[in-house]
């Protein structure tokens, strides 16, 4: 199994930021880029080798990550001119015949990577696609006949969109070399595989963002203000005055996190977990002295108030 990132776009909607760097290297906080986060995800998955399928300013990516980054072996396939994502994947397959975890180079998600891999391994589908609920770009007006009942600001709709994250099994690789009219995977190979009942959908109710505009970038930077990604989830400092720190801790299903900041008050925002061997669920508030070990039975968010 290898990882691969489609990172050949121009990032036109993020100009002038992308005049000098590719979109994948746009920082979401100081010293931490979109691709940094994506490579972190691959490491969490246990992937050891990653191919960057680049084009525009691809040399900047090569300069940043070199031959090895965070224990990952880095490989680069750079196009001199845009050829489309179908060409990019064909080029990759000509170099490898492994299962491929492929992702778009402009997305960030808190999806449970290990659970995604487990689902793919146990699936009979040759392509597993991460899908997320579509968020309306507009506010919704709820009506009854000609009466307006309510206004809902940009809700999630009962439709799914492609989140740009895939598991492609090696037995499916030859289909990418069949004849197609078009250059992009979404309009060529994927529909054909779907018609042959080769494509499965995986979904989670979790953070997912495609960074496609200044507004998207502003939103993800706000999310990453005082946030640190961990292999088990993340910790985000909400408030600190030197004596007291309030944090949001997110622990993925099956993972364990440690909070060791002296005396702590923990409020379970959502989920089901154990704290130092005691079962807790949404709404519970507990006091712990010393280290608090949080083991998540399902995705769990905890508000942690620590005093020193």
From TrEMBL:
Xref: Gene3D superfamilies: Spore Coat Polysaccharide Biosynthesis Protein SpsA, Chain A (3.90.550.10)
Protein name: Glucose-1-phosphate adenylyltransferase
Nucleotidyl transferase domain ranges (all copies): 3-224
One of the record's GO molecular function terms: nucleotidyltransferase activity
Pfam families, A to Z: NTP_transferase
Highest taxon of source: Archaea
This protein's UniProt keywords: Nucleotidyltransferase, Transferase
InterPro entries named in the record: Mannose-1P_guanyltransferase, NTP_transferase_dom, Nucleotide-diphossugar_trans
PANTHER family according to UniProt: SUGAR-1-PHOSPHATE GUANYL TRANSFERASE
Organism: Thermogymnomonas acidicola
